[in-house]
Each structure stands twice: as structure tokens, then as C-alpha cells.
Amino acid sequence: MTKRALCLLATAAALLCFAALFVLRSGGGAEPAVSENFRLGTFVRLSLYGCGNADEELAKGDELIKSLENLFSVNIPTSDIARLNAAGGAWTRIDARTAELLEASLALAELTGGAFSPALGGVTALWRIGTPEARVPSDGEIAEALKYTDYSKIELRVEDGAHFARLPRGMRLDLGAIAKGCVADALKSRFAADGVRRAMIDLGGNLDFVGESPRGGPWRAGLQQPERPRGEYFGIIEAEDVSVVTSGPYERYFEKDGVRYHHIIDPATGRPARSGLSSVTVIDANSARADALCTALFVMGSRRAPEFLARRGDVRAVLVTDDKRVLITPSAEKIFRLTDESLALSVIGAGE
Ligand code: FAD
Ligand code: MG
Fold first, then answer.
1. Which residue from 58, 70, 275, 351 puts its CA 20 to 30 A from 185's CA?
2. 17-51+197-347: which CATH topology?
3. How far is the CA of 117 from the centre of ligand 1 (A)?
4. Pocket of ligand 1, candidates 126, 206, 265: which has the most ligand atoms within 8 Å of its Cβ, to mutate?
5. Residue 138: exposed, middle, or buried by beta-carbon count in 10 A (0-12, 13-18, 19+)?
6. What separation in Å is there between the alpha carbon of 92 and the centre of ligand 1?
């Protein structure tokens, strides 16, 4: 086995240990047709229920994931994102799907006041968290990289149907906090177009449910207890036709001199966010939006995230604080059930 394959397997095993969300089965439904592959730096599992041409659909789904990874990955030198990062400030032709992802990213960066930022590539490349080369950069390196993170300077244009983008010289994109969601949305559209009525898409931390669960009615997703063995959950989401996305500091991190450095960066400091939250889950029809909002809410932290959520009544979210409180939005009340009663549950905005 090559060194790279071994490294991928080690990463995969580590990620499996830290999966933040998992499907709870309760029997009664037909067995799905399943494909499992290592894609997007994580384990990807597609499950189709009651689908006549499941093998063909699963193969098409995997091809779609690979084609989008080839456009969006910072690690693939020929991807649109890697070419933009290397363009030195020049206009670069990109695929329509990359343009769409960049537009969505800019809108979500605006919506979250920059807590989600697509332009942190220079900073995340310094830390390299999630890789064997993870390290603590110097203050000077971080200050230098932060000069090139003003996402409002990203330009997009369309000419004769062709899409182009330009970054300021020195800026690097990293769409790791939204691209998995975008891939899930593309899969959902493909399955819908092909008449797949029930499916589950699991992109390691992003779960997407198509239609009803196999036993009829809502699907059930367990929300991982932060810092506890995999499979221990503190609550359950029950819903149909939604994306459930979780972000937390316990998924990808490294330790140096007794300090833990996790992978969600505060764009204001260029360092792992000091959040006061140990887990954030967002439930939304749109997986890219859920993915980006989840990361942004984690960055906002235990004080600012509830304020943001109270202002925006349309986001369904479940937050867990470091001091073991569970905060949910009123819109999440119908679909969330707390199973660990040692945690204190409150509804954001109630009693104010
Ligand atoms: P999220 O919270 O959704 O995202 C965190 C990630 O987003 C961080 O790892 C960082 O990359 C970035 N980020 C950090 N802070 C912010 C912020 N404030 N705003 C915006 N973005 C932020 N992993 C590998 O190990 N090897 C690979 O080859 C690899 N290829 C990938 C290719 C693609 C197309 C995608 C989408 C992901 C890939 N990954 C790879 C995984 C990736 O590095 C992240 O670990 C993953 O997307 C993070 O998802 P999450 O749900 O854990 O966390
Ligand atoms: Mg995210």
C-alpha cells in the first residue's frame, strides 16, 4: 500500500471516530442499496431505498461527487479553486457550478457578517489542521495572511455565457466549510431528476434526507455528544427532506504543548475560534446554506450566535455550549428531542 493510501486510511479512521451525526435506524424498512467511498477528504455514503436502477444511480452519484471535487478542492491543482488561488490576481475562467458556489459563498459571508468567510485559504494553509503537517503558525505569519482575506474584493463576471472570477493578488479561497453542502445539494437535484424518492446522503458531518424515511414518516438523526465516544447522542432530529449539518471543534484538531487547536478559524483573529460552543447543528432545505451557517454560528460563539438566531427567525439550529446547555431556535422545537436529560434545554428568545 502506498504512503498516500495509508495516510488517507488513517485520516478516514480518525474521521469515522469523530462523526458528528449519524442515522438512527428503527427497522421496518427495506434494505437500501449503498455505496461507500472516500471522497472530499471524508467517508461518503449514499443509500438509496426502493430504487429500481440503484447501481446505475449510485455510480452516477459517485461520478457527480468526483466531478465537483475536481472543481472545488484546494488540493487538486487543476481544480477551479486551485487555479484561482494560483492566478496572481488575473481573471480566470471557471465552471458555472463554481461560479454558483462562489455567489452562494459571498451571500452567506454577507449574511453572517464575515463569520463564514470563503477567503481564509491563506490562513488555513498556514495551520494545515486535519493533515499530518498541522502546526502553530507565528503571529507574524497570521497577521500577513489576514491581509488577504477581504472576501468583498472577490469579483465575478459572465461573458457570452462563460463564467470568470478574479481574486485580489495574494488571496486564497478555501470552500471547505460550504462545498460539501453544495455537493449534497447537487446530488439531491440529480436524484430528484432521476425519480429517486427516498435516499440518504452522508458526507461526514453533513446528512441529507431525500423524501420520507424507509419505514415512512421522518428520518431520525442522532446528534453526537461532544467529547464522548462515537454513537453517544444527546438528542434526535426527526425530519423529512432536509439537510442536517453539524460542526464542532472535536472533529478535526491537533494538540501542541497541551493546547488543542481545532479547524474552525475565527476570520477576525486567524486562529481557532474561541467559541464557548461545543457543537452546532443547522437544519435547512439547502445543504450549502446549512453547512456555511453551521460554521459561522460556531465562530459567532455562545454569546453572538443566539443573538444572530433571535434576529433571523428562519434558521433552525441546535447549539451546545461548553457549560452543557442546549439552546434551540423556536423553529427547531418541533423536530428536536433532547435525550440526555442531564443537559439543560432552553429556547432562544423565550422569556426575554
Ligand atoms: P466545517 O465547519 O463545515 O468547515 C471547516 C473547514 O472550513 C475548515 O477545515 C477550513 O478548511 C474551513 N474554515 C475554517 N474556518 C472557516 C470560516 N470561519 N469560514 C469559512 N471556512 C472556514 N480533507 C482532507 O483531509 N483531504 C482532502 O483532500 C480534502 N479534500 C476536500 C475537497 C473538497 C471539495 C471538500 C469540500 C473538502 C475536502 N476535505 C479534504 C475536507 C475539508 O478539508 C474539511 O475538513 C471539511 O470540508 C470540513 O468540513 P466540516 O464539516 O468538518 O467543518
Ligand atoms: Mg460548514
1. 275
2. T-fold (3.10.520)
3. 12
4. 265
5. exposed
6. 23
